[in-house]
Write a structure and sequence with these properties.
Immunoglobulin-like; 4-stranded antiparallel β-sheet; 19% strand
């Protein structure tokens, strides 16, 4: 009889729960000063002075920049664009795309780090937070404290300031679609329309949420640019880089220590480059898609190098080839004009030049000819055939003009209705035109004729549009 115990049964593996998403740890960026920080704040001021101020600039009795969706007219200083000018919008989008390709291929994510609205408003909101709650250590300490009257008052003041900036931003945004002075009067009189109200609060909420709460999450998870930036980078693209050969092995030391004799690199492992990063990455781990190229780590590291009496540039703008081949500034600059950059630049110059020529030679008059569907053709006395047309005449200039209307294409063809029309500035007028022609002057059914609309004061302003005259 075998009394041996049965072999142990294998235990089922213990279930392990793992989140598919990283738990967010709030980032408290440390304030930094330096050359790149100055540039960044200069662009903050520049972009926001344009955004907040341009809608208040008058121009010939109207707003200088106004996208009047109700009237279907876009005013940009002396230019008036109509729905028929959607071609120029396509050109603008193409120019923006090629500019992005060009500047990214040259200097990485320059737009993200210096001019992106997310970066700009995050900088503004962080400045407000710093002024109310204190520096980085004070903010971390305040967040860790239990709720108290002091903490509540400071948080309330911060969020109140954020909401004020966000609502003013939403108000300004809507002011580019509804005249800003009219909008201000409606807000003052509490008579704001439903759509204006919706967009003021919607854009304000988006600004408050993105710049105040989400911050780096927008750049890391919502912005598609981080995902396809590698397509536009090449080994000669300038990016924020850490010189690992010079900095490693890192370690703390006294300012007066001979770190070379102990085998250490120039990096003192202070972590300030991480503390100033708005997305919380460690640039010493190499290029990461979360890096927005703001260069805050360069300014911070240079200050540490100055205190340690080490050469600047442990973290610097450089290229992959420059780091591998130990190029200097001259070699880096020499590789900027490479075939890819020259192609992007040539295409961009051509498109901008063509658009400029098109705008300069743009005719301030547009005419659409529409046949009167009610009556195609009818016979009149004296063997005359009459066709009716509707002319949509658009004066796209800022000057009221008088126009003459004439017709050609058939022998004896003439206009029986009024041949002179006055149209105010930036206005469309519909004109019904009755055209007569002798019965034998053309073939049966369709005959090609031409309407010519010409400005009385300037004959160079003229448009010739084809139409079809029906002979029964």
């Amino acid at each position: 009889m075998n009394d041996a115990a049965p072999p142990p049964q294998p235990q089922a593996p213990e279930a392990i729960e793992q989140s598919l998403y990283e738990v967010r740890h709030k980032i408290h960026p440390r304030a930094v000063s330096g050359w790149f920080a100055t540039w960044r704040w200069s662009l903050v001021w520049f972009t926001q002075l344009i955004f907040y101020g341009l809608c208040w600039v008058p121009w010939h009795g109207r707003q200088a920049v106004l996208f009047d969706l109700a009237e279907r007219k876009f005013y940009i200083f002396g230019l008036v664009f109509w729905p028929q000018d959607v071609f120029y919008l396509a050109i603008l989008l193409i120019v923006a795309a090629y500019s992005l390709f060009l500047f990214t291929a040259i200097g990485g994510r320059l737009f993200c780090g210096y001019a992106c609205p997310q970066t700009v408003y995050t900088e503004i909101f962080l400045w407000i937070e710093k002024k109310i709650e204190g520096d980085r250590h004070a903010r971390i300490k305040l967040d860790g404290e239990p709720l108290s009257a002091r903490k509540f008052s400071r948080k309330a003041a911060k969020h109140g300031a954020w909401i004020a900036v966000a609502l003013w931003t939403g108000f300004t945004f809507v002011g580019y679609f509804t005249p800003i002075r009219t909008l201000a009067s409606e807000v003052t009189n509490l008579s704001l329309g439903p759509w204006e109200t919706f967009w003021v609060f919607f854009y304000g909420f988006a600004t408050y949420g993105n710049a105040g709460w989400m911050r780096e999450q927008v750049c890391k998870y919502m912005c598609p640019y981080a995902r396809f930036q590698s397509v536009m980078f090449d080994p000669d693209t300038l990016i924020v880089t850490y010189d690992a050969e010079r900095g490693e092995p890192r370690g703390s030391r006294s300012k007066h220590d001979d770190h070379r004799s102990s085998g250490k690199g120039d990096c003192v492992d202070c972590g300030i480059c991480v503390q100033v990063c708005p997305t919380g990455i460690d640039i010493r781990k190499g290029l990461q898609y979360e890096c927005i190229g703001c260069s805050a780590c360069i300014d911070a590291c240079d200050q540490v190098m100055d205190k340690m009496n080490y050469p600047r540039g442990l973290i610097r703008y450089s290229t992959e080839n420059a780091m591998l081949k130990k190029w200097g500034r001259k070699e880096i600059i020499g590789h900027i004009l490479r075939p890819r950059i020259m192609i992007y630049g040539a295409i961009l110059v051509f498109i901008v030049g063509a658009a400029a020529v098109g705008l300069a030679s743009r005719m301030p008059l547009k005419v659409d000819v529409i046949r009167d569907r009610g009556t195609l053709a009818r016979e009149e006395d004296h063997d005359m055939i009459e066709n009716s047309f509707r002319l949509q005449i658009m004066n796209v200039s800022e000057t009221p003009r008088r126009y003459t209307i004439s017709v050609s294409g058939l022998a004896g063809i003439e206009i029986e209705s009024d041949r002179v029309v006055d149209i105010p500035a930036a206005t469309t007028r519909s004109v019904v035109v009755e055209v007569h022609a002798p019965a034998g002057s053309g073939k049966q059914e369709f005959n090609r004729i031409y309407f010519e609309v010409k400005a009385v004061a300037d004959e160079k302003i003229a448009v010739r549009e084809p139409a079809s005259f029906i002979m029964p």
